[in-house]
């Protein structure tokens, strides 16, 4: 195992940990070698010390994508693995910082970042260091079944990292394996909490409940529901899939629960020109939520919502809408689950996107994954911990190795001020995109994401063709929904990267 880790660390040979840390800590201004896009204002702060001193200065495209080597690799892989969703065959050893290399050594500026999952850049030296630590080796080769056999250090591991960034008002965590897993377990917690309140604290299960549960019948298997929103995405497992409403291909042929879906606001842009229309839209959506909570055929135990509907098309709503939603859930004694799987860990200019809402009462549960590189959910109410052991349980209950990675991510985010950095970089990038939208109004429509860091999107009438063309100029970018182009750069994405991105978009739109 140690030799394997040492072998994998060769990928970091171009940037030593010591050198990278020294350079990242310096305050001197670095004159970037990238010229800003035409007509895009650059202030005196736009020149920044690079987080990766040996990072490439620009993309480099040598072949078509996929190139000859990639085409052979795809054909071989397809014999044993479904490649129909493949974006590109990657060479991670030669990827660095904000740049991803493909198998043909084409080097692309990556503003998709493994579907919003890479926070600190490829081959980050701080993560390389923890990956080769004795703690990581132990976590990998002696992986514990955490519910039964946690290590003595587990309390400190949780408190020093994952719980140090817990959302306000939430002080406990359940660790999991993936975003879907986090949401599934959050739903279970909500249902058990619902029945606990109905049954009364301390009341035992009845013999009828115990026997009917084994036959999937009431009262042991009660009719309860989770309310979600149209175009929402919460995962692909059975429970989470019943709350996923983004595309039919995600759900077709899969049995599902009969659970309600409410309208999510479809705002009109630009926001400043549609204030009254958007207020009316959000008010009607809140009314729809209340109607469903009060009239559904069975009790609604919880409402689950994304701060920004990511897979469904990058739809936004105002803080006022979310505050209104929180008031409704409190009014009707329904839990509020905020799905921060894609929005969490700094991408919106706040560590947690729901911090933008300024809630008077925190969400009941917040789920996370992706940029955390681990998964789970936070909660505060002790009654959300089931009243008996093994009710919220599986063999692994997360992965200490991935939690060690998240703890290091947290330290780097704090040390480098990456949340504030992302807010500033996002404002700079949004300003540039606004100018491009005026120049190409038919191609950049409904630009959204102002004041939400780099969590920016717009609608493109020829979206798929645009994404493909962006690869030819060296940018890996993603889409969502029917027509949205979504930006998901890393937290180490800087203004000189934004300049390259803006230049590339303008080049493609001019062609």
Automatic annotation (TrEMBL):
It comes from the Eukaryota. One of its GO terms (molecular function) is 4-aminobutyrate:2-oxoglutarate transaminase activity. InterPro entries: 4NH2But_aminotransferase_euk (IPR004631), Aminotrans_3 (IPR005814), Aminotrans_3_PPA_site (IPR049704), PyrdxlP-dep_Trfase (IPR015424), PyrdxlP-dep_Trfase_major (IPR015421), PyrdxlP-dep_Trfase_small (IPR015422). GO terms for biological process: gamma-aminobutyric acid catabolic process. It is an enzyme of class 2 (transferase). Keywords: Aminotransferase, Pyridoxal phosphate, Transferase. Its EC number is 2.6.1.19. GO terms for cellular component: mitochondrion. It catalyses: 4-aminobutanoate + 2-oxoglutarate = succinate semialdehyde + L-glutamate. Its cofactor is pyridoxal 5'-phosphate. Belongs to the class-III pyridoxal-phosphate-dependent aminotransferase family. This is 4-aminobutyrate aminotransferase. It comes from Orbilia brochopaga.
């Amino acid at each position: 195992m140690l030799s394997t880790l040492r072998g994998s660390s060769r990928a970091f040979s171009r940037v030593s940990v010591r050198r990278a840390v020294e350079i990242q800590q310096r305050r001197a201004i670095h004159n970037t070698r990238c010229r800003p896009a035409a007509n895009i204002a650059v202030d005196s702060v736009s020149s920044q010390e690079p987080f990766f001193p040996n990072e490439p200065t620009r993309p480099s495209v040598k072949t078509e994508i996929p190139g000859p080597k990639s085409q052979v690799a795809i054909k071989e892989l397809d014999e044993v693995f479904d490649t129909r969703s493949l974006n590109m065959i990657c060479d991670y050893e030669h990827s660095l910082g904000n740049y991803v290399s493909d198998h043909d050594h084409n080097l692309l500026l990556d503003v998709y970042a493994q579907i919003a999952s890479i926070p600190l850049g490829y081959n980050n030296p701080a993560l390389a260091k923890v990956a080769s630590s004795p703690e990581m080796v132990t976590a990998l080769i002696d992986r514990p079944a955490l519910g039964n056999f946690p290590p003595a250090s587990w309390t400190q591991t949780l408190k020093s990292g994952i719980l140090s960034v817990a959302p306000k008002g939430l002080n406990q965590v359940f660790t999991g394996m993936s975003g879907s897993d986090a949401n599934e377990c959050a739903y279970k917690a909500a249902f058990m909490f619902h029945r606990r309140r109905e049954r009364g604290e301390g009341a035992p299960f009845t013999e009828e409940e115990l026997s009917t549960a084994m036959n999937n019948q009431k009262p042991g298997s009660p009719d309860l529901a989770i309310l979600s929103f149209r175009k929402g995405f919460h995962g692909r497992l059975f429970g989470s899939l019943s709350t996923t409403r983004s595309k039919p291909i995600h759900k077709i042929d899969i049995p599902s629960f009969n659970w309600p879906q409410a309208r999510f606001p479809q705002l009109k842009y630009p926001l400043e020109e549609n204030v009254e229309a958007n207020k009316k839209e959000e008010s009607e959506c809140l009314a729809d939520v209340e109607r469903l909570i009060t009239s559904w055929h069975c009790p609604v135990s919880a409402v689950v919502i994304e701060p920004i509907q990511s897979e469904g098309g990058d739809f936004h709503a105002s803080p006022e809408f979310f505050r209104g939603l929180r008031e409704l859930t409190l009014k009707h004694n329904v839990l509020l689950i905020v799905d921060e799987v894609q929005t969490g860990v700094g991408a919106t200019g706040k560590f947690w996107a729901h911090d933008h809402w300024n809630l008077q009462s925190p969400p009941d549960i917040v789920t996370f994954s992706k940029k955390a590189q681990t998964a789970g959910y936070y909660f505060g109410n002790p009654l959300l911990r089931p009243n008996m052991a093994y009710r919220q349980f599986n063999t692994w209950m997360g992965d200490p190795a991935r939690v060690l990675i998240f703890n290091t991510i947290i330290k780097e985010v704090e040390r480098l001020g990456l949340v504030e950095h992302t807010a500033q970089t996002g404002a700079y990038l949004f300003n540039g995109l606004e100018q491009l939208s005026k120049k190409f109004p038919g191609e950049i429509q409904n630009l959204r994401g102002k004041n939400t860091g780099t969590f920016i999107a717009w609608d493109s009438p020829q979206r798929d063709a645009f994404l493909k063309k962006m690869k030819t100029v060296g940018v890996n970018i993603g889409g969502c929904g029917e027509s949205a182009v979504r930006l998901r750069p890393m937290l180490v994405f800087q203004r000189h990267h934004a300049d390259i991105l803006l230049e590339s978009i303008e080049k493609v739109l001019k062609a």
